[in-house]
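Exercise 7.
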Amino acid sequence: MAEKSRRDDTLVLYLNLLGARGIRDFLARLSEALSCRVTSREISLKLPFLEATQASRLVENLFSQLRTIRRRVMIALDEVQELYRVSGPLLKLLKMIHDSYPNVSFIFTGSMFGLMRVLLQPEVSSPMYGRRPAKVELAPFSEETSLAFLRKGFRELGVSAEEEELREAVGALDGYVGWLTYYGNFRGIRKMSRAAALEEVVNEGKKVVGQELRNFLKGRGEEAYLTVLRSAALGARWSEIKEALESRFGGFNNKRISDILRTLTASMLVEKRGEVYVVPDPVLRRIVLEGI
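Solution. The predicted structure, written as tokens, is:
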């Protein structure tokens, strides 16, 4: 899905990349947002490397109209983690656009640890290396904000929900707006029971978060990271995490433990509360304890 809106001095393009599986899908949605007609033959081109002249021509065609726009262009890419498998070609493409069109900027949104791997912790070989983006984090809602969010959503749907139910949902989902939104959808639109809606939130969350976690762990020493996550899911001090790692591996370097915890904390998978490390996301907590 793509949308276009105009402000006084800015053209805003919104691309929802949910379900996108490659550069072809990205270009198709971008062309839709730009209101350009791109033939199916052009979109069907295989674009494994951006040095290909066909890829360059296609990008030039898509952005040619922007040369005459004397305004800032903001392109918001939602669910950008969906393009994880082609992050290299995608970032080369975005770099080409950024370098050629100085009035174009990008906003990336999506799951935190999906973005971490692609954008916020790039490898030296990545086109993003040395181009650290500004970061805006959406923290979990407080209890009162979560309750107000659900009340307003149900009211807009014309659905009556008892306070007891709202507090149960908020307590189970810990203020994570994505899970609260899922719950409101399952209850208010799909008309599931309270118990079924909560269980379905977890089931759907496991599908999304489980796959993203597997992607995040690739090349990072998966078993060590999972050992730390399992310990934190139960609430653990640094010494207890070290004990769990030594029990699993027979010995473990202190610096490596600190590096893993720093990465997990920066990715918002783990949070330090006082001297205890925890996994705050209730869905992720179940995934690491029950197995991915």
